[in-house]
Amino acid sequence: MGVDKLIPCSVKLSQVIQKSGCDVLCVIDRQIPKELVEQFNDFRSYDKAFDTTVSCFKSSKLNMPVVYSPLPELTDYHDVRCYQNAAAKSLERAIKGGFKAPLLLVPESDKFAYASLCTVLGALSELYVPIQYREDVPDKSQRISNLSVMIPSPKAEEILKEALLLESGRFVARDIGVGDPERMAPPRIEEYVTKIFKNLKVNVISDLDTITKEYPLFAAVNRAANQIERHRGRIIFLEYKPPQPAKKTLMLVGKGVTYDTGGADIKAGGIMAGMCRDKCGAAAVAGFLQIVNEKKPADIHVIAALCLVRNSVGEDCYVSDEIITSRAGVRVRVGNTDAEGRMCMADALCRMKELAVSENLPDPHLFTIATLTGHAALAAGSGYSIVIDNSVAHCTGHARKLQEIGQLFGDPFEVSMLRQDDFDFNAGKVIGEDVVQCNNVGSSRTPRGHQVPAAFLIQATGLNKHGLDSPKPLKYTHLDIAASAGELPALPTAAPIIALTKAHLN
Description:
Low-confidence stretches: none
Shape: elongated
Radius of gyration: 24 Å
Strand content: 15-25%
Number of domains: 2
């Protein structure tokens, strides 16, 4: 689907404020038009909070309202997100003021090379309207009618075009991530995805016999939900083949748990609310494919899997102590049904491994992306994704590079390391089991609670046989976005699409 249909309103460049046709001017930095200098200085003379809070006033010289959303006093530890946040706040105030056609003055920055792009992205993020609201109340499907941006750069058109491309991917990710457990149940995500990606190769696996035979760990999670037709699981493979011979292959698996009750180990104490967001990993993968589909890289092959399942509780739900043999032939003992994310992704990841080896794909790099653990949120803090490389990816410096790129574009990462302890933690405890899926304590109370699942995904898929000394080393990276995807009541952020795009498609 084209970029223009995935942007929340019309967006255009403007060159002159007075002739922009806009009804409010949004200023987010102290680089202000000369017509506002005297008035700004006058406000500062009697209002000490003027440069720290959002304000709205009328400019007589420009003959139009002005929203001022100041940046903080920047320190060595601020990053470019301060521009994103200021732009979002300026649009939020303009919308509250009833304005429909804002003009955003995009500042330049000596400190942050991509401040202009991030500013536009920050503004666009504020304009997103959830898919159900758009469908149920069509006259509320847009927050404003159009957005104009003034970018003081000879690359203004290029910057705006790039922002709209990236936003189209975030739009798709937000649509899938924000949908409630019924609007974005697995079959309805299938409908959405097949409509968006008409020109990609799409393979939907929904047949229960096929799922049970080829994706047994996923099938276990799906067992209870499969009793309800509208909740039945799907594994959706998407593939982009480049026009030229591929130089590298990106293989992404996304956790798409459309609702997580915890299963038999049910989430109690009110912590089940918000678990419709447990599909944001698959949502991010779909959003990334939207960018791939529009960008059409000449020599990058991309294969993705959306693992869409509802972790329901019922008479047929899987339970702790079951032993299930994974696609890779690894005997897995279930330790906690609320650790369903690693279960639903493992067999699809194994399939990616098989493709990388059997088809001899060029320079393959496998990924899992998931809102996987509360431990990640505790370890990193809100707003930060965690990246964990296996030994092969680690030797290329991948995690640090992704972190550096994410820092430049306001999509930040913390880097974690895999240790032998993480693999030992998962080792089978009794005869007849190879690995234990999870302990029976929450990840936030488990030492190394976000590294251990990454080790499990390596063990349960046979990726541990593709290390540095193997005949076919394979790069694998696990991204835990539990802290960055966006929790209710906030809207989904679509992290880590921007960083992944900049790191792997440029």
